[in-house]
Each structure stands twice: as C-alpha cells, then as structure tokens.
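--- STAGE predict ---
source: upstream dedup step, 1 unique chain passed
mode: sequence only
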Amino acid sequence: TEVWGAGVTYQRSRDARKEESGIPDVYQLVYEADRPELFFKATARRTVGHGAEVGIRADALTSVPEPEVAIVINRFAELIGMSICNDMTSRNIEGENPLYLSQAKIYYGSNSLGPMIRPIWEIFDHDKLDIHAKIERSGSIVWQAETSLKSLNRSFEDLVSYLFRCQHFPVGVLLSTGTGIVPPLDISLVNGDVVTIAVDQIGTLVNKVVTTPLDINDRIK
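--- STAGE serialize ---
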C-alpha cells in the first residue's frame, strides 16, 4: 500500500514553509489554490511502526518531525479509517529549493505510522480531533505543541478527490493530511531523540530517532 502526503494544509505550515524557504511565494499560492499539494511519501519498505526507529538523513543539517493525521482510503475512494503519521522531513533540504522535496521527505525510515488504524465509524467528530506532539532529549522535553483538525484548511473529501484524479489504488491508499505543528527554526532532531505524537481517539505514536547513513546498505546488512 502506498502512503501519500498533503502539504501546506494548515496556516501554521504555510507560515513555517515561508520562513524556511528562499522562495516563499510558492507556499502562499498553494495554500490559497483550489488544487492541493499532494506528493508520494512512502511504501512499506520506508515505513516503520510504533516503537521503531525513524531516520534523519546524514546529509541534512536540520530535520524535524511533522505530526499528522493519516486517513485510510479504500479502492473506491471511501474513507474507512484513521491513524497517526510522523512525516519526517529534512527541513534545510526542502527549504533550499522546493524541487528537493522528494529528497527531503522520501528516504529510509522517513515515515512512521501507528499505533493502529481506527475504523472511521468508531471515531466521534473525526474532523475535530486534537493533535499533540513533543520531542524528548535525554529525558527532558525540548519542544512540544498541539493543534486540531479543526484548523485544517481543506476537507478530507477535497484531498481524496484530488488524490484519486487519474490515479488507481487497487488495494487502497493512506494519505497523511499535513501538519499544523511545526517546530521553530532553532529546533532540529538529533540522534537519540524520542518523538511522541498523540491524537484523540486514535492513540499515541512513539519513535526513537537515529541517523540514516548515506550508504543505506551499512544500516540494513
């Protein structure tokens, strides 16, 4: 099953991308456009679950977690479940040039999902869930923040509609709906950090951070 991502779906995300980028206008334009930013994020090979290790690129100067709600969609474009996604991002690489987006977001250990998929019919007010995130380092919290799906600038239905245009997902697809929580520019993940993301009615996703080497074969031998 493929994992896709949506970008610049919250005002906070738009503002953060403009701060990070040398080409800020592109983020304002997509935030206001009818067509959302959608991008391929991961397959199972690049995805880890709750309690596993997420990666930061060895050639990135700054890396951040992007706490997001992921929606599970069947082959008929129907929303059937929800989960939590940590869309790991190499911030300085994406900020240098938007065309580097795939390198900033798609690499070994760049995506975490879990701790479960909650059926949509079990979730009350699924478009209003609160999202909490924190980074711990050596037992101390170095950053924490929260947001709510109420601040999402686009509806799930709108995102799904665009995702399924000219696309076929025979076994369904997961779509991470974008982040409304972005660490300030002076925060960057380091080896050994622990990222915790909690979403009401879904659960808590916890991952330790490790450095993904330039030669990934050194890691997966």
